[in-house]
Amino acid sequence: MSIETGAVRESGATRLRGIRACVFDAYGTLFDFASATARCDDVPADLRASLSTLWRDKQLQYTWLRSLQGDYADFWQVTSDALDFALDSLGIANAPRHARLMDLYMTLSAFPEVAGVLRQLRQAGFVTAILSNGTPAMLTAAVHAAGIGDLLDAVLSADAVGKYKTHPRVYEYGLRQLGLAAREVSFQSSNAWDAYAASAFGMRVVWCNRYGQREERLPGRPDHVIRSLDELPALLEHAR
Asked: One of 25, 32, 74, 223 is an active-site residue; which one?
């Protein structure tokens, strides 16, 4: 597998067969989490990249740490707490800036290829869905802002089970809502930890490695690695 070039894991690998649904992670996969800070004029330009990275890293850490503590708070609260930490760490904390960034997070920009890929998948007969840590309100706002609501059959939130990915109950919930077996689902995530966990759970997985990450040393292994979702349709046998 060539992570650096985004090549398919196995040279000449056959298409994924028996897939009925394509399920997507949201943040970093469909929606660009960096677009909130990029669009915020209230953040000094030279700090926007650092703020975005620190905010995202802390956001994920808090989901895992709260899971270990058994002290669940929804993703909106986790995102707000992580932003507080990031702004304070960079010495730019104030209430209006925090509020503006949280508002922008509700309407993150979709990556350019997203709508076209979802349309292709629907035309090919696949069920399309989101399975995300985001709250229902966060996901509804992002989907509406991106104009992709009519291209999705389901938008599923981990909030329904009070757990965060990579907990198996989140993946179980997605399958239960779709009425499908794990091997009938192709799961797409840009987060390596999420891709590996979904694979270990039993789903077929296409890791959209947008950020040039290294392979994880965790259970599971993606079936394919791509750099952009526009490479996905060619990896799937049509559902009909």
From this structure: 25
